[in-house]
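R.M. (postdoc): so does anyone remember the format we settled on? I'll just put the structure tokens first.
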């Protein structure tokens, strides 16, 4: 698995800008985290909490709920919502699967999800940051530094993704979001 990460970094094509999402500002709390429980998602149309599989929800609504649940420390609920997404295992889905799995203590599964996200989109700087932070948690600082270089390579030097991973490498402390 770590070999794949080394190969991905070693064979990076040059990109002039960061193509991966760096939407890293904490989401504003909504009814999904203030009122809903057990992985349910707030549906604004019905003004109620619904199961994530509910056909009234689209994947963007589900994804917003995933981010909000993950950022508020509810990774198991985020995984439930991710499982209901219909877009397949895209790099954004795999990035947050990795995050939620890692935060729920399933580090190796999280690493595999990050690697799948990066195989689908090597320029996903958020996946690289979270992946690098997972590597820091495992004490693999050289591999984490390779992810930091890749973030720079893809134009993400001024991003939260870069700052969070650089700080984790420097301090040994990773972000909880």
């Amino acid at each position: 698995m770590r070999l794949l990460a080394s190969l991905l970094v070693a064979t990076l094509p040059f990109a002039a800008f960061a193509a991966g999402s760096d939407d890293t500002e904490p989401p504003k709390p909504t009814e999904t985290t203030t009122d809903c429980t057990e992985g349910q998602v707030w549906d604004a149309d019905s003004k109620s909490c619904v199961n994530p599989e509910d056909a009234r929800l689209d994947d963007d609504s589900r994804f917003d709920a995933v981010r909000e649940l993950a950022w508020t420390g509810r990774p198991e609920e985020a995984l439930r919502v991710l499982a209901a997404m219909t877009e397949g295992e895209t790099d954004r889905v795999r990035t947050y699967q990795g995050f939620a799995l890692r935060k729920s203590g399933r580090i190796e599964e999280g690493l595999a999800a990050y690697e799948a996200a990066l195989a689908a989109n090597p320029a996903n700087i958020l996946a690289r940051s979270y992946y690098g932070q997972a590597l820091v948690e495992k004490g693999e600082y050289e591999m984490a530094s390779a992810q930091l270089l890749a973030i720079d390579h893809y134009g993400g030097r001024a991003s939260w993704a870069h700052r969070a991973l650089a700080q984790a490498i420097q301090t040994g402390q990773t972000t909880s979001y």
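R.M.: ...and that's the designed sequence above, right after the tokens. Also worth knowing: Confidence is low (pLDDT under 50) at residues 1-22. The beta strands are 41-43, 48-50.
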